[in-house]
Amino acid sequence: MAQRRGRVRGIGVDHRADQVAPVRRIADVPPRAIGDLAAFYRGSYTRIYGVDGAPMHDACAIIPFVRPSLIRHEPAALEVSLAAGPARGMTVVDRRGVVPGVDLPPARQPKPANVAMAVEVDRRAVIDELVATLLAYDRTPPA
Questions:
Q1: The dihedral of CA 20, 124, 122, 119: what is its sign?
Q2: 79 in Cβ contact with 111 (< 8 Å)
Q3: Is the pLDDT of residue 29 over 80?
């Protein structure tokens, strides 16, 4: 099977970008609706999972293309488990490194990195970018 290189975000990166209050203060309907949705999800995650944060999946998926410095990536080996059992369909990420010169048997060798995995987000800057984009929303109807 051909290996592809890509980017991946762990769920923890999304959850750390959780400050949605500024978005809810924008007067225009679409931006305010986005803020309300984020607040709803934040409340749901707090109530159900005990996590105080609203997942920002969409924003964190786009940010690396428009402001790459806001999310730090590290190389990682990623596979999707296809074996039968409880891990079927789960993503398995190996972030281990091996000290150069250490000789390990083939079965213990980490696989080469095939994705750039997001490991850290500049939460405040992501929210600021999202708010700035929503403030720039053009209400002019298309011609």
A1: negative
A2: yes
A3: no
DSSP 3-state of 51: coil
Out of 3.90.245.10, 1.10.10.60, 3.60.70.12, 3.40.710.10, the CATH code matching 6-97+104-135 is 3.90.245.10
The Cα 55–Cα 16 span in angstroms is 8
Predicted local confidence at residue 70, as pLDDT: 92
DSSP output for 59-110: HHHHHHHH-GGGEEEEEEEEEE--SSSTTTT-EEEE-----TT----GGGSP
> What are the pLDDT digits (tens) for 97-111?
767 778 888 877 778
